[in-house]
Design a protein that fits this description.
By secondary structure, this protein is mainly alpha-helical. It is about 55% helix and about 5% strand. It has a two-stranded antiparallel sheet with strand order 1-2.
């Protein structure tokens, strides 16, 4: 049995973006939004909204590149939890709209990333997804989680892995 490009991209992106959206609900119930929006883990790191924006960009750009299409433009203007949640929802809708067959055809597609300084990387689609897109996505997801945790929001591992739901194995009596 093989695993598809769709299976290792779309559900993973969607689960994490849904979790990120839920973290904002919990955060809003515990801490002042304005304070949390300024949060960062280190002075040289970008603040919470940028972590959400870059996670969104990583997900939508990955599936678009793999499917050989353009990702929707989403200007980085979100300045509230409601706007960040809306961006998560738009990203999820786009990612889920991609035909699995289009993603499958991207496994061997050449993906080139060029950075503003002119350097970059050339990958096959599969190597791009597993070696760059997913690690980069989870860097920003985890950084957003860390910002909220470090600000005192009561997030824990169950919040990070909420897509699993409650345990499905009962303890022995």
């Amino acid at each position: 049995m093989s695993i598809s490009i769709h299976d290792v991209s779309v559900p993973i992106f969607v689960n994490a973006l849904r979790s990120m959206s839920a973290w904002l609900d919990k955060a809003a119930s515990e801490k002042p939004e304005a304070e949390l929006l300024l949060g960062r883990l280190a002075p040289d790191m970008r603040a919470l909204p940028a972590q959400y924006q870059m996670a969104s960009d990583s997900a939508k750009n990955a599936v678009a590149r793999l499917a050989g299409i353009s990702a929707p433009a989403m200007p980085d203007t979100e300045a509230s939890f409601a706007e960040l949640k809306a961006r998560c929802a738009r990203t999820i809708a786009f990612v889920e709209s991609i035909d699995p067959a289009a993603l499958a055809s991207g496994a061997d597609r050449t993906v080139e990333l060029t950075f503003p300084n002119g350097t970059g990387y050339r990958f096959t689609g599969q190597a791009y997804l597993t070696g760059f897109a997913l690690p980069n996505f989870f860097f920003h997801v985890t950084t957003a989680y860390g910002i909220l945790r470090s600000a005192g929001v009561s997030l824990g591992k169950p919040d990070f892995l909420q897509h699993l739901g409650p345990p499905n194995i009962k303890a022995a009596p």
